C-alpha cells in the first residue's frame, strides 16, 4: 500500500462519523538500540486497541514481532490528509514510525492544524521503547565496525600504530581537565573512548587470541564489582580510607605480585614514575631510603617523593608552574595570558589515592 492507494474513511455516513469525533493518531516511536519486540505496556495497549496500524517501512524490525503478537499491520505511507480522514468517526490509527521519525507526515499534520480549516484528530507521540543510559555506546561500536571495514586508513591500523595516539589523547584529556573547559573535556573524553573502541575492534581480528569490546567491558565490570565489596557485597566502608583498604586488599589477592614495583609502567613521565614508586613504597609500609647520587635526576627524584608524601601531584604541580612561566614569557613579549585556563598556583594539586587505579 502506498500514499496513492491509501483509503481513509468512506464517504457514506461521513456526517455521522464526523459527529462521533475526529479520532486519534498515535505516532509510535521505537529505539533501534533496544531489541525489537521489547515494547512498553502503553505501546502494546495502543496497538491492540487501534482500529488500524500502519507502517511505511515493510522491513521495519518491529513488524515480525507485532504480527506474531496478533497485530495486523498495514504497509502504507498516507499523506497527512489521508491519515486525518482515516481517523474520522472516532477511529484510532497507530503509525509505527520509521527510523527517521516520519518528518513528512508530522510536518503535514502541523500544516493542516495551522490552517484552521481541518478538524484535527488527537495527536499523541508514544515512545514504545527508550534508550537506556549508555545506549549511544552501541552506536559508537557500530560506527567503528563500519569504519574498520570500509575506511582505507582505519582498516590498516594496528595496536602498535595507534599507541602514540592513545598517549596524545590522554595528555589532551588531562589538559582539558586542568583548563576547566567543560566542552573540551566532553570532546577529549570521546577521543579517549574512541581509542578504547578502536583497539577492541582491532583485537577482534586476532587469529590466536581475539577479544571484543564486550570482553573489555565485561572484564572491567567484574573487576569493579570485586573491588567494591562494600557496594556489591557484605562488607562495609564509611570512609575513603576504608574503601582504599578494601581496594588494596582485593587487588593484592588478584595480582599476587612479588614486588610493589610490579604494574608500575616505566614509560610514564619521570616525575609521575617517581611519585608512583614512592606511593607504592609508602602504602606498603616499607622503609626504602632514596638512592643517593649526583645530578639533577636524583634531586628531582627527591622532590617527587617529597611532593607525593605531601599529597601533591608533582606532574600537575610542574605543569602549573610551567604555565606560569609561559605567561611570564608572553608578558615579556607584550602579550596577555592565555584565556580560559585555571590559575597557575601549584599548591594543593593532590594525588590520586594509591591503589585505586584499575591495574
Structure explained in plain terms:
- The chain is α/β, with parallel strands linked by helices and 359 residues long.
- Helices cover 50% and strands 6% of the residues.
- The chain contains 14 helices and 5 strands.
- A 5-stranded parallel sheet has the order 3-2-4-1-5, with helices on both faces.
- Strand 2 (52-55), helix 3 and strand 3 form a beta-alpha-beta unit.
- Helix 7 (159-179) packs antiparallel against helix 8 and helix 12 crosses helix 13 (296-309).
- The longest helix is centred in the middle third of the chain and has 22 residues, at 182-203.
- The radius of gyration is 31 Å and the shape is elongated.
- The two termini are 59 Å apart.
- The relative contact order is 0.08.
**Average pLDDT rating:** 86
Report how far apart the termini are. Answer: 59 Å
Radius of gyration: 31 Å
Strand order of the largest sheet: 3-2-4-1-5
Could you give a quick summary of the protein structure above?
The protein is α/β, with parallel strands linked by helices. Helix content is 50%, strand content 6%.
Summarize the topology:
Blueprint: H1 14-19, E1 24-29, H2 41-49, E2 52-55, H3 63-68, E3 74-75, H4 80-86, E4 92-96, H5 103-115, E5 122-127, H6 136-150, H7 159-179, H8 182-203, H9 213-226, H10 229-232, H11 240-255, H12 270-283, H13 296-309, H14 314-332
Parallel strand pairs: 1-4, 1-5, 2-3, 2-4
